[in-house]
Amino acid sequence: MHMIRYAVFGHPIAHSLSPRIHTAFGHQLGIDVRYAAIDAAPEAFVEALERFAGDGGRGANVTMPLKEAAFALSAQLTERARRAGAVNTLTRVDGRWHGDTTDGAGLVRDLTARHGLDLRGRRALLLGAGGAARGVAPALLDAGIAELVVSNRTPERADALADALGEPKRAHSRYWDDLGNLGEFELIVNATSAARGGQGEFSLPFSITTSRTLAVDLNYGEAAIPFLAWARAANCRDVFDGLGMLVEQAAESFALWHGTRPDTDPVYATLRGHSAVLVTSD
Ligand code: ATR
């Protein structure tokens, strides 16, 4: 019997690349990784996770819309997960789940180590205040950005995220409707789900960009197309989707579970080769 010990939970989850990524890392390092994708609606998540643990599950990645639920059920949290208020990596320790988030580290590693960009001193705009936004905000601050403006369709969530970051001088919220009056940003991160499920246009004012702007969508594939198209039309210098972050956050989780860090470049190159979304950078 082949016991599944690792899995990604989400809803929907059928198209997740995580099983491929973790299996490829395992092949690279000679580790027999058994990693599945498990669909769980929010109301069924806790039960599905306990069943998984009962069947020998040792580690789980968690994606939308379950990252805040994973945070809530974690018996222990890492400092970065606590600051993010979101968990994407669960590890079974002594019959309980320990929660961590590797999303922010994955994003920063993708932008700095892979793409060679310096985030320090940039004025940054974070679009969205859900689980994805919470997951990356602390790591952006730690990477040395000068200012983080959080803007969200529902302003109360942006306020809550800015408050939770606890750095009122650097991180604050602004109204989405007021984006056109906020000046220029050298880093713009789309952490909204606005274009998931094929909802068309992504309309933001060009005035928030400069010719030096780095624009990143945490989504990849179809869901990233509208924001990337907008960023290119606005002449942003560097435009990336979330595929690199996906691979890097997976590597962080893999290192936590298996004690060894995979080389992400070949896995990224393979997935990029199959991805419909083109990425541009000068
Ligand atoms: P995730 O875990 O991916 O962050 P989420 O917690 O449901 O998912 O958050 C989705 C984010 O996308 C939220 O910031 C949401 O804004 P609201 O808080 O106002 O719901 C944002 N979002 C979704 N659809 C959007 C749209 N059409 N325009 C702008 N923001 C949108």
UniProtKB/TrEMBL annotation:
Residues 242-272 form the SDH C-terminal domain. One of its GO terms (cellular component) is cytosol. Residues 118-195 form the Quinate/shikimate 5-dehydrogenase/glutamyl-tRNA reductase domain. Pathway: Metabolic intermediate biosynthesis; chorismate biosynthesis; chorismate from D-erythrose 4-phosphate and phosphoenolpyruvate: step 4/7. Residues 8-90 form the Shikimate dehydrogenase substrate binding N-terminal domain. The active site is at 67 (proton acceptor). Shikimate binds at residues 16-18, 63, 88, 103, 220, 249. Transmembrane segments: none annotated. SUPFAM superfamilies: Aminoacid dehydrogenase-like, N-terminal domain, NAD(P)-binding Rossmann-fold domains. It catalyses: shikimate + NADP(+) = 3-dehydroshikimate + NADPH + H(+). GO terms for molecular function: NADP binding; shikimate 3-dehydrogenase (NADP+) activity. One of its GO terms (biological process) is chorismate biosynthetic process. It holds the Pfam family Shikimate_dh_N. Its EC number is 1.1.1.25. InterPro entries: Aminoacid_DH-like_N_sf (IPR046346), NAD(P)-bd_dom_sf (IPR036291), SDH_C (IPR041121), Shikimate_DH (IPR011342), Shikimate_DH-bd_N (IPR013708), Shikimate_DH_fam (IPR022893), Shikm_DH/Glu-tRNA_Rdtase (IPR006151). NADP(+) binds at residues 79, 128-132, 152-157, 218, 242. Keywords: Amino-acid biosynthesis, Aromatic amino acid biosynthesis, NADP, Oxidoreductase. Homodimer. NCBIfam families: aroE, PRK00258.1-2. PANTHER family: BIFUNCTIONAL 3-DEHYDROQUINATE DEHYDRATASE_SHIKIMATE DEHYDROGENASE, CHLOROPLASTIC, SHIKIMATE DEHYDROGENASE. Involved in the biosynthesis of the chorismate, which leads to the biosynthesis of aromatic amino acids. Catalyzes the reversible NADPH linked reduction of 3-dehydroshikimate (DHSA) to yield shikimate (SA). Belongs to the shikimate dehydrogenase family. This is Shikimate dehydrogenase (NADP(+)). The lineage of its organism: Bacteria, Pseudomonadati, Pseudomonadota, Gammaproteobacteria, Lysobacterales.
